[in-house]
Amino acid sequence: MRREHHARLPRMCFAPARKPPGSLPSLLAAVLIAGVLVALAAVPAEAGGDAFRKETTRAVRAHEKARAQVDRLRAGDARTTEVRSAERRRKAIRAGLWDALWSVARDAGDPVAVDPSGRAGRCPAARTRSRTPEDRDGDWTAPTRRYRLSAGYAARGSRWAHRHTGQDFAVPTGTPVYAVGPGTVRATTCGDGFGNQVIVRHPDGYFTQYAHLSRIDVRKGGRVAAGQRLGLSGATGNVTGPHLHFEVRITPYMGSAVSPLPWLRRKSVDIGG
Ligand SMILES: [Zn+2]
């Protein structure tokens, strides 16, 4: 069986991460963040993907903890300064992760880093065929309809070099794929293991990825509303059959995925599973 190489982080060197901005009120938090960032920057070049992956996984977890802390403080009516400093912690972790992953993605020739509009490659010209739904402020939604949930997040299997980084929705080729929430199209690319893919940036800073599409209906830079069609599902890239691969990421780059179903549940979208 073929391996979906998209789940694998390449063995590449990367640039040192940015230092977290400003001074932090909590020394402990500063030490923790510094630990993650230093570890991300310290994995030596060619040390192998395993050490790098371990550190990026740690950074993703630290980010999610920091985000949960921001949410808790907001819900508990904490002082503005407290919320701000928690938000700074979250952003510092993300900035370090972003730099490290961007560098790896660029060196590996990941189209999201080197050709996010899909123009340089041989991507099918993305004609804007998708209309914004009437209800622009629509609720968050599932990325497709009439699906069967197949491979889940963090699943192990012969198809992935490591763990599965997204949630698969088994749907026939040609099924409409929708933006789960409002945002801006960050990338429309083709040619790697993900085949034709769309990456959307949402207002909360997270990114969603829709891969293996047969057709792309949006362009980089375009705004999309929740439920707006991004394209049609397919079987492009490294796949064993037609399905939608859906990911939620902290950055546009692979290696920063979080568990997508709990993330959607926080937006009041329950897709089962
Ligand atoms: Zn998948």
From TrEMBL:
Question: Which keywords appear in this protein's UniProt record, sorted alphabetically?
Answer: Hydrolase
- State the Pfam families in the record: Peptidase_M23
Highest taxon of the lineage: Bacteria
Which stretches of sequence are listed as region Disordered? Answer: 113-142
- Show the SUPFAM superfamilies listed in the entry: Duplicated hybrid motif
Enzyme Commission number(s) = 3.4.24.-
Looking at the record, the residues that make up the M23ase beta-sheet core domain are 163-250
Cross-referenced InterPro entries, in alphabetical order?
Cell_wall_metabolism_enzyme (IPR050570), Dup_hybrid_motif (IPR011055), M23ase_b-sheet_dom (IPR016047)
GO molecular-function annotation terms? Answer: hydrolase activity
What name has this protein been given in UniProt?
Answer: M23 family metallopeptidase
